[in-house]
Amino acid sequence: MSRVDDQQQAQEQAQEQAQAQPQPTIVLDPESWLDEHGDVLFAHALNHVRDREVAEDLVQETLLAGIEAAGTFAGRSTVRTWLMGILRHKILQHYRRSRRKPLQLDAALPPDGVDDQFNRLGKWRRIPGRWKGDPDELAERDEFLEALTHCLDELPARIREAFMLSEQHRLAAEKICNVLDVTATNVYVMLYRARSALRKCLESNWFGGDAGKGC
Amino acid sequence: MSCRKATELISVSMDRPLTRGETIKLRCHLVICTACRRYRRHVGLLREFLIRSTLWLDAASLTAEQRLSHEARSRIRRVIQQAG
Question: Do A176 and A183 form a contact (C-beta atoms < 8 A)?
């Protein structure tokens, strides 16, 4: 090729290289994470494990893991979301580590929760009431969240774990089996008991029921 | 189908798709049973509340019990500083 062509080619190559330079690296500030996100991470962990010391350890592990993995943070989500993702993973690890023997369902659960809501023929003793309110609006109200938290606290621990794994972690039943070391059928039963107990508790403590006989 | 059985199926339907047979039986029951229709609405709302209550976990609205204690915060800070 002629020299002019060579020069042109070199110029084009230089232009290409300039355009292909890496994006400016995201600057992370791990020292600020504890101040900005520590409490929220702690509150979320506490929702699951119910033990302050364990929750504190989980927050610490999360922040350390975040520091180690800081190079992989791609900036597609906020730092808060990213750290929450790490925390969720740590919570799952915690559940697996503290796995107990497989649940003996009938022995482990109190007789009520579901059974006392229906008579011997399987009909409602009290018809569920009408619930008024909009989820978006209710979820913003502290008093409602207190009632919800109270009702969650009332659940037996294993039932609550299963329910949180399903509803907060969005785990499928098969995954919950593995984490809690129970069968899929057990998981369905635990979730049913959780929902029925929570429904009844929230109705008593917040929504109020219509006074009605069973159908 | 009893209401007890219907509520079990309603709950299961939130965790896996129902079979065709289950769907038909449940629908037949719900057509005639206000109580179980309300149950279905309520447990659906429960799911919505859980989803939203996580989202609304905002630092400013946490109670004192939901926050790290001073000691815990200091301890974690020391560990992080050593690592970082």
Answer: no
